[in-house]
Amino acid sequence: xxxxxxxxxxxxxxxxxxxxxxxxxxxxxxxxxxxxxxxxxxxxxxxxxxxxxxxxxxxxxxxxxxxxxxxxxxxxxxxxxxxxxxxxxxxxxxxxxxxxxxxxxxxxxxxxxxxxxxxxxxxxxxxxxxxxxxxxxxxxxxxxxxxxxxxxxxxxxxxxxxxxx
Length: 165
Prior knowledge:
This protein is mainly beta. The protein is about 10% helix and about 40% strand. It is built from 1 helix and 11 strands. It has one helix at about 1-20; strands spanning about 30-35, 40, 45-55, 55-60, 85, 95-100, 110-115, 120-125, 130-135, 140-150, 155-165. The longest helix has 17 residues, at about 1-20. It is elongated, with a radius of gyration of 29 Å. It starts with a helix and ends with a strand.
């Protein structure tokens, strides 16, 4: 008797989970309708059943019932339009251009730090000129992080640089 009650309790918890509507989010699909039939389809749709009758074959799958897309905008980096790092990937020399224009934010980066992939600090420097040269020739081929920051406003951004041999 205890088994029966335990089974009923478990079914009571599992049934709402199994009864939830399944839906599919697809990047391609279509819809067709004429006077006799309407058809909607999605690319990558899972097939669950197929029925056939005379000239018609119907395959039942998951349909998108209520689609509420969510868009997540990435935050704008205040330094992204002010900093150019090139060439990337590089074999040695990297040039850092800081654009100083009236339309750009006044808190442009004034310092940089170079890190390896493990987070070890390799170099740091001050951006005095509009163009600064950084020599990666002494480092092995790998990915490096070049962090720019402004001490006064505590704003920062990071650029990934690839050094190739």
